Amino acid sequence: MLAWLMPEQASVQAPRVDAIFLALTAISGAIVLLVVGLVVAFSIRFRRGSKANRDALPSLVAREFEIGWTAATLFVFVFIFWWAASAEIRAYVAPKDAIEVHVVAKQWMWKTQSSNGAREINELHVPVGAPVRLILTSQDVIHSFYVPAFRLKRDALPGQQTETWFKATKTGTFHLLCTEYCGTDHARMLGRIVVMEPEDYARWLSAQPEGDDLAHAGERLFAERGCAGCHAPGSGVHAPGLAGLWGREIPLAGGRTATVDGAYVRDSILQPKRDVAAGYEPIMPSYDGLLSDGEIQELTAYIRALGAGPRASRTPGRPPLSSRVPGAARDRSPAMVPGAPVDDGPAPAGAATRP
Amino acid sequence: MSAGLAESPTALADRGELALGLPESYLAAGHTLGSWLTSTDHKRIAILYAISITVFFFLGGAAATMVRLELFTPKADVVGADTYNKLFTLHGVIMVWFFLIPSIPTTLGNFLLPLMIGARDMAFPKLNLASWYLNILGGLLTASAMLAGGIDTGWTFYVPYATVFSNSAVSLGVLGVFVSGFSTIATGVNVIATTHTLRAPGMTWFRLPLFVWALYTTSLIFVLATPVLAVTLLLVVAERAFDLPIFDPARGGDPILFQHLFWFYSHPAVYIMILPAMGVISEVITCFARRRVFGYTFMVYALLAIAVIGFFTWGHHMFTSGMSPFAALVFSFLSFIVAVPSAIKVFNWTATLYRGQIGFESPMLYALGFVGLFTVGGLTGLFLASVPIDVHVQDTYFVVAHFHYIMVGASVSAYFAGLHFWWPKVTGRMYPETWAKFAAILMFFGFNLTFFPQFIAGYLGMPRRYHVYPPEFQIWNVLSSSGAAVLAVAYLMPLGYLTWSVLFGERARNDPWNASGLEWRTTSPPPRENFLGKPEVLAEPYNYHPEGAPPVKDQPRIPAQGSLT
Amino acid sequence: MSAAEKLLLREPWDGLGLPEESALARQRAGATFGIWIFIASEVLFFGAIILLYTVMRLEHPDAFAAAARETNLVYGTLNTALLLTSGMLAAVASRMNEGAGARRTVLWCLAATAGLGLAFLAVKGIEYREDIGRHLVPGPGFPLPQPPAQLFFAVYWFATAIHGIHLAIGIGLVARLAILGWRDPAFLPDNPQVEVSLLYWGFVDIVWIFLYPLLYLPGRAG
C-alpha cells in the first residue's frame, strides 16, 4: 500500500525525506483527526436544543487553554523544523570524491557531461553507490532537474551555476523530469537516469566515444583568449601560475585566504579585483560578459585538471576513457528530438552494441 | 425623494417597510444603469464587484475545466501543448488577481465594513468607485491579451521565459494585472482610513468584529506588498517593450532577483486571500453556535501576526533555486512560525463550538467545511516549509493541491459562507435553504475528490504544468478530474438558486439569523445612509449571551424551504 | 454652514451629524491619513526599484561605476536644485494655507512649485535627448563594452521615467490647485486637498533625493 503511494527510494536521501514525510503525515493526521473529531463531537453534543450542559467556562480555564495550545503547536512546529533542517544540512555538502557531472538544460532537452568524458542527451548513466555531484546551468530559460526516485531537485539557471549531489542506492532506470515551467514542450522535457552496477558502468563508459571533454576545450580557450599570455609558465607578466593550484588554500591580499574551487575561479575571472592573491597586483581585466558560462566551465575544468595532473581526475577503480565507438552523441540518446517521447524500456547493458 | 422609486416595479425594497415611513433601500435609489455605474455608495460598488468577480470566476473556472479534461488521460488528446499552457495561465491569472484577491474584501468587505463599524460610507467613496473601474480596466486588458493570442507563461511570469522567450501577449496581460494592482491599493487605503477614522462612538478597536480586523490586516498587505508586484511587472513590460535588460542573464541580469521581488508580493498575497476568509468564518461560527468567540484578543493578535510574519516567508518558494542553506533555514523557520497563529485560530473556532447552541444552516455548513479544509491546507504547508520535503515536492501537484486547499477549499468556502450569511442583508431576500445545504455538502466532497488525489500524485513525482504525463499518474488524475466535474456542478448551483432568490425569494427580516453584529441593526436591504439614526456601540462583539451565562436555544430562524417553486 | 465649507465637506463626512467645524477637521485628518498610507505604498514601489539597483550594483560594481560616469552630472545636479527649491515652496504654501490671510502667497508658491516641476521635466528632456544622442540606450550600439553597464542604464531609464511620471502627476495636482484657487478665492483656505497634494509633491521630491546619488554620483569620487 505504502509502496503504491510513494515513489521508489533509490538514493541515500530518499529514505531520510520519506521518514520526515511520514512523521509529518502522522502528526498532521493526528491534528486533523483531533480538529475534525472535536468539531463533529461538539456539533452533535451541542446541537441546537440538546440537553448538554452549557454553563459558562471560568475565564481562567479559557486563558490556560489558549496559552497551552499556542505553546504546544509552537513546540511541535519548532521540533519538525529542527528535524527537517538537520537533515537538510547533512545533505548539503557533496563528498569530495564525487563524480562531477555538468548539466546544461535548454528548451527542451538535458545535456549531461561527466568529468570522465561521457556526454549524453536526455540521459545520465551513473554507477550505483558512488556520489555524483551535479553542476547545473541553462542556455535559455529556467529549468529544474528533478529525479523523484532520488528526492532530488535543483533549478538550472541561465547565467548562473547551481549545484547538488546524490548517491544512488539502487540500479534501474528512473525518471528525469523538468519541473520549472519552460515553454511549449515543458511536459516533454523528460530524460532518464540509468543507475548501473560499477562493472556495467565501466563497460558502458569504455564504449563511449571520447569527444572534446571540458578540460581540453578549456586548454584551447586558455590560449585563444589570452589567459596564457600572463598565466602560462615563463610569461613576462607577474601573474600567478595555475598548475597545482586546484583545491589548495591560498593567501589573499589583505590577509584572508581562499580555497581554489569552482566558485573562486569563476569569481577570479569575472571580478578579478575582488579577491586578489597575495603578492600580486590587481592588474587582470574582468572577463565579465566576454566569456560564456560554458566557457568558464571549460576553463575551470582545465585549471582543475592542471591541479590534479593531466587527465587523472578519475579515482582508481573507474574505467579508463579509451574507446572509439562510431556515431555522434546524438545518435545514442533515445530522445534527442525535443518533444519525442522517451522510450522507457529496460536499460541497455552497454551502449557499445548500439550504432 | 423616494416618490419615483417606490413606484418602480423592480424595486426590491419591502413595500410594507416603505409604507411605514422607513427610508428607501439602497437598491431602490435609482434603477438606471447609470445610477449603478456612477454610484459612490459602498453597497452598490460591492454589488458591481460581485458581478465582475462572478464573471471572472466562471471564466477562470472554464479554463480549469479544460485543463482537468485534458489531464484525464496521459496523452495530449483535447488540446495541444501551447493551448494547454495558455489555459492554465489564464486560469491562474484570472483566479488569483481578478477573483481571489478582490473576492471577499471588495464584495463582502466593501458592503459590510461601514455597516459593521457604524459608518455611513467608506472614507473615500469616489476612490472606491475608481478602484472598481481600475479593476475592470485591468480585467479587460488581461482578457484582451487572451483574444490577442493568450499568455503562456504561467501566472508567475518567471523570467527570462516571460521577458525574452515567450511569443505570446505577455505585455498586455501583465499590464492588466499592473492596473488591477492599483485597484487593490486603492481599496486598501480606503479600508485602512475608514477603520481608523469612521468608527461609530463606542466602537473601540477591541470591539471591532473579527471580520473588520481581518479586512484591516488584509489591507495592510494590499498597501505594502502590491506596489512591489507593480514594479516587478512593470519591469517585465519594460524589458519586453523597450528591450531594457533588467533580468536578462545574457547581459548580466539576474532572473532570481525577479523571483525574490515576485514572491515578496505573492506570498503575502496568499494571506490576502485567506485573512478575510478567516474573518467571515469568525462571524458565521459565532452566530450559528450562539456563542461569544473563544479568545477574541488572541484571534486579533493572530491576524496581525499572520499579516506581519507573512511578509518574511517568501523564500520558501525558492528552496530549489540554489539559495544559500542559511537563507533556506531562516525562511523555513519563519514559515513554520507563521503557521502557529493559523493553528491558534483553528483551535479557537473549535472551542467556540463548545457549549454552544449549534445550528446547521447553510452558512454554518460552509464554515465547518472551511475549518476542515483549512486545517488540511495549513498542515500541508508545514511539509512545504521543511526544506528536504519541499525539494522533493516543489513544483509538483503536491504544491498545487496545497494551495488549492487554502485558496479554493478555504477561501472560496468562506466566500460562499459569507455570501449566504449576508445574502438577506444585501438583497433583502431569503434563498432556498435546502438547495444551499445541498450545494455546500456537494462542494465539500467535490473539492476533496478533486484535490486530495493531487497530494498523492505530487508526492509520487507528477510535476505541475504538464499536459502530458507518465501513465503511472493516470489514476490520480482521473479521480481529480471526476471531482472537478462534481465541483463544477456545486459551483453552478448557487448561481442558479441565488439568482432565483433575488427575483422570487421570500422577503428577509432585518435580522433573520438573530446575529449580534451592528450590520443587522438596520433594514434589509439597508438604506443609502446605512442606519436610521446614529449608531452607538455599547458592548463587546458577539454578544450572543451575557458574560458568564449559557447561550439559550433560539427560535428556528427561517422557514425551511424545500424547492425553488 | 458657510458656502465655502459646504463646498469643501464631502461624502461621507457630511453625514456624521457633527458641527461643520469638527466635521471638516475630521475630513482633513482622514484625507491626510489616506495620503500617508498611499505614500507608504509608494515607498515600497520605489523601494523595490532601489533594491533592484542595489543588488545589481553589488553584483557588478565596476560596470556600474563606469556606466554612472556617463550620466550628465550638470543636468542631474541642476534638477536636484530645482526640485529641492520646489519642495521648499510647497512646504511654504502648505504652511501659509492654514487660515485665510495669505492667499496671494499661497497662489504664488503653488504656481512656482508647478513651474519648477515643469523646469525639471524640461531639463530631464534635454538630458534624455543627449543620452539618446550618445546611444546610452541598452541594445546594439551601446558605447560601453561591459554588458552589465547596460543594466545600469536600464535602471536609469526605468527609474527616471517612473519618477518623471510621478512628477507630471504632481504638477497636474498642484497646477489644478493654483488654477482653482485663482478663480475662486474661497477654494484654497483650509482645503484638505492642498495638504494632500503637497504631501505627495514632497514624496516625489524625496524620491529624487535618493535617485540622484544612486544614478549620478557612483564612480565619480576621487
UniProtKB/TrEMBL annotation, chain A:
One of its GO terms (molecular function) is cytochrome-c oxidase activity. The keyword Transmembrane applies. SUPFAM superfamilies: Cupredoxins (SSF49503), Cytochrome c (SSF46626), Cytochrome c oxidase subunit II-like, transmembrane region (SSF81464). GO terms for cellular component: membrane. It is found in: Membrane. It is an enzyme of class 7 (translocase). It comes from the Bacteria. Residues 309-355 are annotated as: Disordered. The chain crosses the membrane at residues 20-44, 65-85. Its cofactor is heme c. InterPro entries: CcO_II, CcO_II-like_C, Copper_CuA, Cupredoxin, Cyt_c-like_dom, Cyt_c-like_dom_sf, Cyt_C_IC, Cyt_c_oxidase_su2. It catalyses: 4 Fe(II)-[cytochrome c] + O2 + 8 H(+)(in) = 4 Fe(III)-[cytochrome c] + 2 H2O + 4 H(+)(out). Residues 213-307 form the Cytochrome c domain. Keywords: Copper, Electron transport, Heme, Iron, Membrane, Metal-binding, Respiratory chain, Translocase, Transmembrane, Transmembrane helix, Transport. Its EC number is 7.1.1.9. Its main location: membrane. Subunits I and II form the functional core of the enzyme complex. Electrons originating in cytochrome c are transferred via heme a and Cu(A) to the binuclear center formed by heme a3 and Cu(B). PANTHER family: CYTOCHROME C OXIDASE SUBUNIT 2, CYTOCHROME C OXIDASE, SUBUNIT II. Belongs to the cytochrome c oxidase subunit 2 family. This is cytochrome-c oxidase. It comes from Methylobacterium oxalidis. The lineage of its organism: Bacteria, Pseudomonadati, Pseudomonadota, Alphaproteobacteria, Hyphomicrobiales.
Automatic annotation (TrEMBL), chain B:
GO terms for biological process: electron transport coupled proton transport; oxidative phosphorylation; respiratory electron transport chain. Residues 36-538 form the Cytochrome oxidase subunit I profile domain. Residues 542-565 are annotated as: Disordered. It is found in: Cell membrane; Membrane. GO terms for cellular component: plasma membrane. It catalyses: 4 Fe(II)-[cytochrome c] + O2 + 8 H(+)(in) = 4 Fe(III)-[cytochrome c] + 2 H2O + 4 H(+)(out). Its main location: membrane. Signal peptide: none annotated. The chain crosses the membrane at residues 46-67, 87-112, 132-151, 171-193, 213-237, 257-281, 293-314, 326-344, 365-385, 397-423, 435-456, 476-500. InterPro entries: Cyt_c_oxase-like_su1_dom, Cyt_c_oxase-like_su1_sf, Cyt_C_Oxase_1, Cyt_c_Oxase_su1_BS, Cyt_c_oxidase_su1_bac. It holds the Pfam family COX1. It is a multi-pass membrane protein. Its EC number is 7.1.1.9. Pathway: Energy metabolism; oxidative phosphorylation. It comes from the Bacteria. Keywords: Cell membrane, Copper, Electron transport, Heme, Iron, Membrane, Metal-binding, Respiratory chain, Translocase, Transmembrane, Transmembrane helix, Transport. One of its GO terms (molecular function) is metal ion binding. Belongs to the heme-copper respiratory oxidase family. Cytochrome c oxidase is the component of the respiratory chain that catalyzes the reduction of oxygen to water. Subunits 1-3 form the functional core of the enzyme complex. CO I is the catalytic subunit of the enzyme. Electrons originating in cytochrome c are transferred via the copper A center of subunit 2 and heme A of subunit 1 to the bimetallic center formed by heme A3 and copper B. This is Cytochrome c oxidase subunit 1. It comes from Methylobacterium oxalidis.
TrEMBL record, chain C:
SUPFAM superfamilies: Cytochrome c oxidase subunit III-like. GO terms for biological process: aerobic electron transport chain. It is a multi-pass membrane protein. It comes from the Bacteria. The chain crosses the membrane at residues 33-53, 73-93, 105-123, 154-177, 198-217. GO terms for cellular component: plasma membrane. One of its GO terms (molecular function) is cytochrome-c oxidase activity. It is found in: Cell membrane; Membrane. Belongs to the cytochrome c oxidase subunit 3 family. This is Cytochrome c oxidase subunit III.
